[in-house]
Amino acid sequence: MAAGHLIVLLAFFLVGFSATVSIEENGPSEASSSRSYLSTSAESETDFIPFSRKGQRLRAAELKERDQDHVDNRGLHLHGSKTQHIREGLFRHHDYETDCRSHGFSHAVSLLEVTFGEADALLAFKDGIGSYSEGALDDWTPGKRSGYCSWTRVTCNRHLRVTALDLSHLNLTGSLGPSLCNLSYLEELRLNQNFLQSEIPPELGRLSRLRILDLEENWLHGKIPRALGNLTQLRHLVLGRNKFDGGIPEEFADLQKLEWLLLSDNELTGEIPASLGNLQNIVDIDLGSNNLTGSIPRQFSNLTNIHYLVLTMNHLTGEIPPELGKLRMLEGLYVDNNNLTGNLPVTLSNCSRLWAISLRYNSLTGQLTPINFGGNIKRSLRILSLHRNKFSGHFPDTLLNCSKLFWLDLSENQFSGELPKFDVFGGLFLPLTCNGMKHGNFYVLQVLSIASNYFGGSIPSSIWKLPILQVLDLSFNLFTGVLPQDLSRLSTYKLPMIPDTMIRFHLTISLRKGEFTVKYEYVLNALMSIDVSGNQLTGKIPAELGTLLGIRFLFMGDNNFEGSIPFELGELPKLSDLDLSRNQLSGPIPVSLSRLRLSYLNLSLNRLCGPIPVVDSFDTRFFQSFLPGNPKLCGDSINKTCESSNFSCGGDLHPDPVSTVSEWADSWNLYFHGVSMTAFAIGASVGFATVIGLITMVPTLRSRFLFPRERRTMDHAESDYGLFRRPS
């Protein structure tokens, strides 16, 4: 009887039934009660198109056109007992419910399998989902089984095969079950940025056509299945930001078409398989933020097409293999936060496309030789970060040949000697902290940080001649003498218009171990933090500080400032932290300070006098901020009544609230191409907002702040890695 029904079914094709055929459902409990789409032509291979780049890796990627024909859900119906007979006849010979195999069936069975398998596989997957974004999968129902190709985030080809499933960013909870292995024509599976909690089912290794597997940013755990090594068509394997443990499967070496291997931010252990060096087509490897050990495989020198190698925040030891100098396509090398030793390989100078080298937080030693920055690299290098290593010796003059360099971080090493003239760099950020270098001349420098060194004597006058200097950090040194009173030379460059979104940044000016008797001019009013604490600065606190309307943190403690506290400090609307302790300040506490919404205040160990302001309970909110010291302060909060003349200041020492600061601010309120500038501090010029945006990322320990990635789809293109973009 089954054979008879099969003959009837084949007759439909012989007489020209090329349309889709729907089979009436008998109830959701029957696994085979599906509508069936029939087709007489075999599936043809479609061109692979990578979706937009995951992570903020900015590199050129050639995208191919993709033919994705969306199907029409309308079709002809088979009714009544005839439908049931067809089902029974076919399924007496084949139990389909759990079998993922695609061989051994007759042509007719495989045609009915399209609908029976595709729709049921999707519904079974949904059954494992606990919740999702409102309305996201509401149309995935048994009652709409015949229209599965039009379900949310489902893509079919013209033969009604599910080829792509993009369920990213839907807040999915639940588990990733094996049912998706029934989608035998699936080429792209994207479940990234959800809350799935399970292991990866090994059955996914049967999806032989899969080209993109993206499970990034879930709560997946367990070991990465070795069966994924069977996905020989795979181009993108993205499993980052989960909780996978165990080692990296050796079987990944069989993925010869793989272009992206992104496994960062997991708990992977063991050594990096040397066999990964066989991935001839790999473009991007990111194994950062794991617990990997051992050395960097020398076999990586065989990765002739690799652009980015990211091994940050692991426990790698040994040297950086000199063989990496053979990687002529390499653009970014990131091995921050490891235990690497040895020298910076001179062979890297052969990498003509290498524009970012980040080796921070290692134990690298030796000197930077002229060979390191000769060769081809001088035309490409833009970012060099060697922060917190053990490099020594003089600054190599050949680094000056890297004319595109804009970020140079040599801080916390053991460099010594004088710096060369940086007159070839157009926009250099230069933190040189914790070294032993002496100052040279930098005529085009925008940011200069020589903090945490052993500088002494007077500050070289050449610093004040830098025409476009934007940020100056002289903290943690031993400078003596007096700073010049006029820094107008630092503000001669005209600032072009900058969008509001680009001037929201943090900036800290530090002039420790020097003198703070300088007039400030021309800084964006978005300046947020000034720290000059812990020095031997003298003179009065500049009243011009009151013009920094964006300031939030002002730390000037542990110096030798004298005079009164400027009334203008109470006019800073965003000020939240104020520390003026351990100075020689005198006079009363300005009433204007009581109007600030401070979260931290320290005025102790000064010579302040008179009553503590009581407006808005100022005296009780900060009663611990006035002692010790200040013997002539009085008020109920410190248990000293103000009736005695012992607490008198000998006259009103408050500055005039209507001081010359208003006239000063008005006279220096400048408008350059629509940008309102409040005259105040050290210098701003072209690229100011961009450079400061970069500076905000210096304190972060994650090496990703340098990564040029785009790891989000186009509708989630916000940056995880700051302002760095691939240079144009």
Q: What can you see in these coordinates?
A:
- The protein has 6 helices and 41 strands.
- The protein is mostly beta strands and 728 residues long.
- Among the domains are: 128 residues, no CATH class; 197 residues, Ribonuclease Inhibitor (Leucine-rich repeat, LRR (right-handed beta-alpha superhelix)), CATH 3.80.10.
- Strands 4-5-7-9-11-13-15-16-17-18-19-21 form a 12-stranded mixed sheet, with no helix packed on it. Strands 29-30-32-34-36 form a 5-stranded parallel sheet, with no helix packed on it.
- Helix 1 packs across helix 2.
- The longest helix has 21 residues.
- It is flat, with a radius of gyration of 34 Å.
- The N terminus and C terminus are likely disordered.
Which labels suit this protein?
single chain; 728 residues; mainly beta; Leucine-rich repeat, LRR (right-handed beta-alpha superhelix); 12-stranded mixed β-sheet; 5-stranded parallel β-sheet; 41 strands; 9% helix; flat; disordered N terminus; disordered C terminus
Summarize the structure in short:
By secondary structure, the protein is mainly β. Helix 1 (2-14) packs across helix 2. Helices cover 9% and strands 17% of the residues.
Strand content: 15-25%
CATH architecture of one domain: Alpha-Beta Horseshoe
- Helical residues, percent: under 10%
- CATH class (first level) name of one domain: Alpha Beta
Q: Name the quaternary structure.
A: single chain
The computed structural class is mainly beta
CA gyration radius, whole angstroms = 34 Å
CATH superfamily of one domain, by name, is Ribonuclease Inhibitor
